[in-house]
Amino acid sequence: MMTDLLDPPASLPPVQDAPAPSAARPPINRRLPAHPVVAIVGATGAVGIELIESLTARDFPVARLKLLASARSAGLRLPFRGREIVVEELTEDSFEGVDVAFFSAGATISRRFVPLAVKAGAVVVDNSSAFRMDPGVPLIVPEVNAPAMAAHEGIIANPNCVAAILTVALAPLAQAARIRRLNVATYQAASGAGAAAMEELRAATGAYLDGQPFTPKVLPHPYAFNFFSHNADVDPDTGYNGEEDKVVAETRRIMGRPDLPVGITCIRVPVLRAHGMAVNVEFDRPISLEEARQLIGVAPGLRLVDDRVGNHFPMPVEATGQEAVLVGRLREDLGDPSGRSLALFIVGDQLLKGAALNAVQIAETLLPR
Amino acid sequence: MMTDLLDPPASLPPVQDAPAPSAARPPINRRLPAHPVVAIVGATGAVGIELIESLTARDFPVARLKLLASARSAGLRLPFRGREIVVEELTEDSFEGVDVAFFSAGATISRRFVPLAVKAGAVVVDNSSAFRMDPGVPLIVPEVNAPAMAAHEGIIANPNCVAAILTVALAPLAQAARIRRLNVATYQAASGAGAAAMEELRAATGAYLDGQPFTPKVLPHPYAFNFFSHNADVDPDTGYNGEEDKVVAETRRIMGRPDLPVGITCIRVPVLRAHGMAVNVEFDRPISLEEARQLIGVAPGLRLVDDRVGNHFPMPVEATGQEAVLVGRLREDLGDPSGRSLALFIVGDQLLKGAALNAVQIAETLLPR
């Protein structure tokens, strides 16, 4: 599955915001050696752990793996391919000799250390939101817009988890017909708020079942058998929260549709690590269910789970740990009398396609053929 | 709060399907005595227990309470106003002397026993789906369409839980502007599938946390930290499940809008007894957020929970046990470029406004003034 996605298939959407390479800049290592030295920043976090797993699962040709984290986590040992690797403290000198660095330690760390990594010669795949809307930094879901990577200048941004899962699921439909309008209601897992939030969900639920009090520390609301509007700050003027703003902006950018109308409501539900979304898509022409099923059935990165008789559709217990994003509940959207809209339900592993897997797939496209 | 809603306020939607009283039929007791004899069929179920609670909470003037259930539950004792009432087996003779009977034992029981109760002189408030689409049976949410009750012939249907919570929340907006289109994604609790499903959610979650296997018996899919498409059977032709079909048909009927386009996706999430819904509403004119807030803020049965700065919006932990349906996350719907759509998030107690409370409110409107 290590496809070279830099060759744009004719059907991919046009690249709209990758800048022309600047002749005045120093040369950048735009591709990786056959066996790159790999660094993971934030190696002990929920996504960091999955990055190590994904490198193994996908047989990424790692020459050497460097695990970086805060001073607090330095000295921990994490398993990789049968050996243990000692976590080192992230410093300004951490990136010497590194070919590719995966950053997953939040936007503040990325803003400070990503430029140092690039200066040291590494290509950075950044999982934070720091550079996602920077016009000089491609924002990539390989199955959707790999051609936009061609002009990278050392940094490639990995999208918000909802945007990644949503756009990979919509890609085959968007190639068949132009999307006019999108509406999304999410069912988001604890993992999007990190390993501590996953542990808080377990602990809060255990306390509830034992009849014990529990005070949330990571998330702003009780999580046991409860759901709540996403914990990102809410814009007091628009009423949309930061998560929703990210999903809208990044979905538009990945799909090359800067003006696409997107309605969205982001809700955290008490599940551990798979995000769901109920989606309505209006196209510029009617797409039959048969056509939609065929498109989704053969699209890379997707699995059609759409058994009406067995009432078997995408759900977290089956998406967790899976590279494929599950797509199902394909129906005509009865809320649109024009007959040009479909409804579907999507579930993907937030830590895999929503984060670590997509980042490793980005790096794969930079390996020699 | 025992308002007499039979007097139609001028702003309520037109009654479209209540038939004219038939002069040929025998007279029906259309109203209740000041102190009615009350029966509850299905008294030991999740809704039955809440019916007893709601009669107490709302000071319903019960002369005598008769609790009816299957032979299996007969002999159990349930508390009511400081005394214990022995549950009796439901038989064909159970309704002698009963003024009002609440049915909550499923459509099969209702189809068989409701006609017997009416024949015995009782007014029936039926919580099952058996008669909801019968043109001779009003389907009532008192805050929305109480005038449609006037022509009842002994049976009044209590709506599906989602339809009740959704329509009471939309009522003030629908009175201010005509709704053109509706889209709903639900976050539904275990209680909709009964007390056994609530217990299964607790047990499955406890087993998961203990690392023990668990085989679901009540619901078709694992429920611990999982969500799944609603368990009602799916129409193999349309892809919509029975719950979605009910919500669409009943919402249209309650709102007096038989052709309203309604898009819907019903999902069960791991919460115990409050249903959520992310809703998009397109109106025939733009409604400002200020206007929407004012309308919802003064509407009967609703509580506006819309604190953007505190990131505090409707959620199950605050809706559970509450009569009011919580409405918040009011925003312009950015998925509709016309600017005529609002987005909102609604959470209501499935067992209260979604079932028992609404049934008791229906009976209240039949009491003498």
TrEMBL record, chains A, B:
Catalytic reaction list: L-aspartate 4-semialdehyde + phosphate + NADP(+) = 4-phospho-L-aspartate + NADPH + H(+)
GO molecular function: aspartate-semialdehyde dehydrogenase activity; NAD binding; NADP binding; protein dimerization activity
Entry annotated with the keyword Oxidoreductase: yes
Catalytic residues, chain numbering: C161 (acyl-thioester intermediate), H275 (proton acceptor)
Pathway(s) per entry: Amino-acid biosynthesis; L-threonine biosynthesis; L-threonine from L-aspartate: step 2/5; Amino-acid biosynthesis; L-lysine biosynthesis via DAP pathway; (S)-tetrahydrodipicolinate from L-aspartate: step 2/4; Amino-acid biosynthesis; L-methionine biosynthesis via de novo pathway; L-homoserine from L-aspartate: step 2/3
Biological process (GO), any one: diaminopimelate biosynthetic process
SMART domains (alphabetical): Semialdhyde_dh (SM00859)
List of residues binding phosphate: R132
Keyword annotations of the record: Amino-acid biosynthesis, Diaminopimelate biosynthesis, Lysine biosynthesis, Methionine biosynthesis, NADP, Oxidoreductase, Threonine biosynthesis
Superkingdom as given in the UniProt entry: Bacteria
Database matches in InterPro entries: Asp_semialdehyde_DH, Asp_semialdehyde_DH_beta, NAD(P)-bd_dom_sf, Semialdehyde_DH_NAD-bd, Semialdhyde_DH_dimer_dom
Residues involved in NADP(+) binding: T44, G45, A46, V47, R72, S73, S191, G192, P213, Q350
Gene3D superfamilies: Dihydrodipicolinate Reductase, domain 2 (3.30.360.10), NAD(P)-binding Rossmann-like Domain (3.40.50.720)
SUPFAM superfamilies, sorted: Glyceraldehyde-3-phosphate dehydrogenase-like, C-terminal domain, NAD(P)-binding Rossmann-fold domains
Domain Semialdehyde dehydrogenase NAD-binding: 37-152
Amino-acid positions noted as binding substrate in the UniProt annotation, renumbered to this chain: Q188, R268
EC number: 1.2.1.11
Stated role: Catalyzes the NADPH-dependent formation of L-aspartate-semialdehyde (L-ASA) by the reductive dephosphorylation of L-aspartyl-4-phosphate.
Quaternary structure annotation from Swiss-Prot or TrEMBL: Homodimer.
The protein, known as: Aspartate-semialdehyde dehydrogenase
